[in-house]
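Researcher: Re-running this chain for the archive, since the previous output was lost when a drive failed. Same request as before.
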Amino acid sequence: MRIGLYPGTFDPLTLGHIDIITRACALVDRLVIGVAINRDKGPLFPLEDRVAMIEAECAVLSAQTGTEIVVHPFENLLIDCARDVGATMILRGLRAVADFEYEFQMVGMNRALDSSIETVFLMADARRQAIASRLVKEIARLGGDVSSFVTPAVRERLVARFA
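Model: Regenerated structure tokens:
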């Protein structure tokens, strides 16, 4: 069974994330969405809300693609999380060259820790390249329309959070 790990904070889940998840489903039999518990980032949504958003949105994708999608919170090293879930690949989305520079360093470190786990990069769809959770939160906080960047359910959660 091909198991892939797609890690992130998903604060909140965006259409860019969903694009990567959808395409990752074509590469694996089981996709584990690793939700990072990163206290340094000070997430807008608590872990439980982020997990619930992902589970709700991915239930439909799982049914459509036939790929098992599992949500797995983690607070340890990414490479240890990959081992914990039995992943043989880590899937990462890239939007721009700046993303690649950071990811390139991460791949090198992860390969030094465990060379048996590959990292696979998926380029964001051109329509989704500008979407960043940080920017979506800022737009929502200032009362802007985020419906082009997130699903209706996530939009509702954002609006309620900033009401």
